[in-house]
């Protein structure tokens, strides 16, 4: 048996739609795999009642097929599904890392990224690696075509998760199919600023680079209380605020000294909007880790 911890992630970061992603120090999924004649899946933990255990309908089933590695898989969800924190990607990432070890496939972490990405097609309709890349590799990742670049940045973050659900498919449907030249230029500039901020470990540059005028406003409409929560986070000291992935999670960049105040302010703002939520005081963390092998 091999047990792997795979972290939650936040994709897009505002200006990096379908390209940028970060691993979060917390929360995480814990996944155990054992060799078996055919694949079975058992899911417990946060939102497990909503996650199919049929391998053809679960993200990890596609990973098993790609690696030709049948197994009995136990998934303990620390990341609620439909959260915008890469719940399905974490499971796929953990299984990819675990099965690669269990069956001695000898693949590198980067080679596992597109394999885990195939699992994302189950929930979004097409493969994406913006969440699985940081969940496997850790740090800040830039995924472009078949290339993934990783920066081991250190930026304090707050991820606030409201008790509402936004499906990845619905969040992709509202993304505009066109953008003005002005918006494109603005987005490129902000994305470059964010990437520079990650390389310099600068919360100010990362926060400035999160601003986006194309995708984020459309997705924010799906999140009750978004504008109020965003404003509260800035008032409490956040350097940048955006929708985490497809939402409804909201991500704030900040300095360590302000993290607790920002978390409290975001939860209070959601409460004022009539929405329960919880906040994770986190940071950019490591990728999937093998916890045990027996």
TrEMBL record:
Its Gene Ontology biological processes?
Answer: threonine biosynthetic process
Q: What is this protein called?
A: Homoserine kinase
The record lists the organism as Halogranum rubrum
Q: Which GO terms describe its molecular function?
A: ATP binding; homoserine kinase activity
* Top EC group: transferase
Q: What is its main location?
A: cytoplasm
The enzyme's E.C. designation: 2.7.1.39
Q: Is the keyword Nucleotide-binding assigned to this protein?
A: yes
């Amino acid at each position: 048996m091999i047990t792997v911890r795979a972290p939650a992630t936040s994709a897009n970061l505002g200006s990096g739609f379908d390209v940028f992603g970060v691993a979060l120090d917390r929360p995480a999924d814990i996944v155990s795999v054992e060799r078996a004649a055919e694949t079975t899946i058992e899911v417990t933990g946060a939102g497990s009642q909503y996650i199919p255990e049929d391998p053809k309908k679960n993200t990890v089933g596609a990973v098993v097929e790609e690696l030709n590695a049948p197994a009995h898989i136990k998934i303990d969800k620390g990341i609620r599904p439909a959260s915008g924190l890469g719940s399905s990607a974490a499971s796929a990432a953990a299984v990819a890392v675990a099965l690669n070890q269990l069956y001695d496939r000898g693949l590198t972490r980067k080679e596992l990224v597109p394999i885990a990405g195939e699992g994302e097609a189950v929930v979004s309709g097409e493969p994406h690696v913006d969440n699985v890349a940081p969940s496997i590799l850790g740090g800040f990742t830039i995924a472009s075509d078949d290339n993934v670049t990783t920066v081991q940045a250190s930026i304090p973050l707050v991820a606030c998760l409201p008790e509402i659900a936004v499906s990845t498919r619905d969040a992709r449907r509202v993304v505009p199919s066109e953008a003005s030249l002005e918006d494109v230029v603005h987005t490129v500039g902000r994305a470059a600023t964010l990437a520079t901020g990650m390389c310099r470990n600068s919360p100010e540059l990362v926060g400035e680079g999160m601003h986006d005028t194309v995708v984020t406003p459309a997705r924010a409409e799906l999140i009750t209380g978004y504008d109020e929560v965003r404003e509260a986070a800035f008032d409490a000291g956040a350097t940048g605020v955006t929708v985490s992935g497809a939402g409804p999670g909201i991500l704030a960049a900040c300095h360590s000294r302000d993290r607790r105040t920002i978390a409290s302010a975001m939860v209070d703002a959601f409460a004022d909007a009539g929405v329960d939520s919880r906040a994770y005081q986190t940071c950019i963390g490591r990728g999937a880790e093998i916890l045990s092998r027996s």
